[in-house]
Amino acid sequence: MSDSEANDFASIDLLADLEPAVRKKVALQCSWRRYASGEQIIDRQSEATDIFFVIEGSVRVVNYSYSGREVTFDDLESGSYFGELAAIDGEPRSASVMAITPCYIACMSQERFLSLLEQYPAIALNLMRGLTRVIRASTLRIMDLSTLAANNRVQADLLRQARNLMDDDGKAVISPIPVHADIASRVSTTRETVARVLNDLARKGIVVREKNALVISDLENLREMVEDVRGD
Q1: Cα(first)–Cα(last) distance of the chain, in Å?
Q2: Which of 19, 83, 159, 185 has the most crowded CB, counting CB atoms within 10 A?
Q3: Which of 230, 220, 70 is nearest to 152 (CA)?
Q4: What is the spatial distance between Cα 123 and Cα 144, in angstroms, rounded to a whole number?
């Protein structure tokens, strides 16, 4: 492992509280690999128990129905990690993970990861916080899938993306423009429904399509539309 790889490891959120020398030691305990766009990193039901750290690129956590329909759980960017469930309990993987873009990934064995948690409680606490965020997001998603119509689920997904990108004027720029199939996979609907909802929002002036971005020009209106049907 090169010094640059050790420095790259500092971007991992889970390890943010560690001293640089300790992070370098942790990085030395990993194997490193590059993945091409579209390449599978983890296969659901695999019995491997390693944990993975995204150094560069982005990955998608997915599952597939019996009919082959893809269901997207999350997209993870550099600085993220995945595979922690199997690393904790030793059970088979609960989802597949594939590279969205070319990726550089560090992989650590279950044994070394559990030892790391025992040695550094700050990492264990960061891990628990991460799992808490996943549970909260999953609870909201289950409620949306159970109670919202398909068009409202599309609106809620746009709102979720936009909230992290809002500027001082109450606008948000999502770039690149979201792929209809990706939104449909996240909210369990069709690409046609996504297109219809986006066209309706555009007619109302809530979203504006630009060359390489989707601008949410009236985030407050979008928020009210979602909260009205959620009953928030």
Answers
A1: 50
A2: 83
A3: 230
A4: 32
